Amino acid sequence: MPFEAAAFAARAHQHQKRKDGQTPYVSHVFRVCLVVRHTFGFDDPRMLAAALLHDTIEDTATDCDDIIERFGPEVARWVAAQTKDMRLPHDEREAAYVKVLAESDWQVKALKLADLYDNLGDSKHLSPGARRSTATKARFYLDAIRIGLPESIGAALRLVEQRLSELESCLTS
After folding, report:
1. Cβ atoms within 10 A of the Cβ of 136, count?
2. pTM here?
């Protein structure tokens, strides 16, 4: 399943770039998958597939039915939980998103932690203002993820918190 998800994500994100305007976007989803597997230690093929697909509904022409058809309802549910409703105004969208994160399965929370871990690490390429925005958003999402978080992913949370603290201390220095 992860191999098919990697190919699917590469095709879906093929013309997109990261915020630096140079890095292919798909490198982010590949790194998130690597964080889930090698940094956090989760090897469930469904989680790895969802890590690779986590931005496809939000950022590409992919819809939830495409994910269900190719990867099953559980992967689709996890991907959908990481998808912001871009039809809503910003503040409503963020409020709805953190509500879903707070109520999500532990797998979704672990996947979001991997996403945050990568975004925080990748923020060194951004302007100080954009790094500050990344840190603020990460802090906001971590507050939602902590709700009902099982200890089995406590180590992942601590790694993200450490990375966030390092970024925040660089911003205040």
Report:
1. 12
2. 0.95
Q: What is the pLDDT along the chain (173 residues), one digit of tens a residue?
A: 889 999 999 999 999 998 888 889 999 999 999 999 999 999 999 999 999 999 999 999 999 999 999 999 999 999 999 999 999 999 999 999 999 999 999 999 999 999 999 999 988 888 889 899 999 999 999 999 998 999 989 999 999 999 999 998 888 86
Q: Are 1 and 45 in contact (CB under 8 A)?
A: yes
Nearest CA to 4 out of 50, 63, 37, 43 is that of 50
Q: 152: which DSSP letter?
A: G
Q: How far is CA 28 from CA 93, 118, 137, in A?
A: 22, 7, 17
Residue range of the domain that includes 91:
2-172
- Catalytic residue numbers? 58-59
Could you tell me the CATH number of the domain that includes residue 65? 1.10.3210.10
Rounded CA separation 68/47 (Å): 14
